[in-house]
Amino acid sequence: MTAISSSPFRLERFFPYRLSVLNEQVSRSLAALYSKEFGLTSPEWRAVAVLAGFQPLSANGICNRTNMDKVRVTRAVARLIQAGLVSRQEDPDDRRYVSLRLTAQGMAVYDQILPRVQRREAEILAVLSDEERAALDAILGKLTQP
To answer: Would the pTM count as exceeding 0.90?
Structure first.
C-alpha cells in the first residue's frame, strides 16, 4: 500500500492542473491567429489540421487523432462543411461510413494558417534550451503513449 503524502495539497503544483492551464494558454494564443481572420474555432482548426495530414478520415477518425469528444467533432465538421472547407462522401458499400476531406478552399486556409501557428509554437518554445525542448518532446511522447 502506498502512503499518501501528509503535506498540504497545492493545486498550483498539481500536474493535471498545470497541464490544463498550459493547454488553455497555448490554445488561446493559437486561436488568436486563426479565429478572427478565418472564423475558425479551436476544434475546427484541429479537424482541419488532422485532415490535412491524415485524410480521408471519418468523424471518429478525427476524434481518435485529436482526443476531442464526438459532439465537438461533429459540430466542427458540420461548420467546416457549411463553410466549404471540408467535403463529405458516403461509402457506397456502407452508408454509415462518411469519408471527410479538405476541399481546395480548406487546403488553402490550412496553408495560410500553418506557418502562423508554427511561428507561434517557436515563440512559445523559445524560452527552452535545445536540451529542454528535446526532453519535453521525449516526456510528452512517453505521457501520450496509449
So the answer is: no
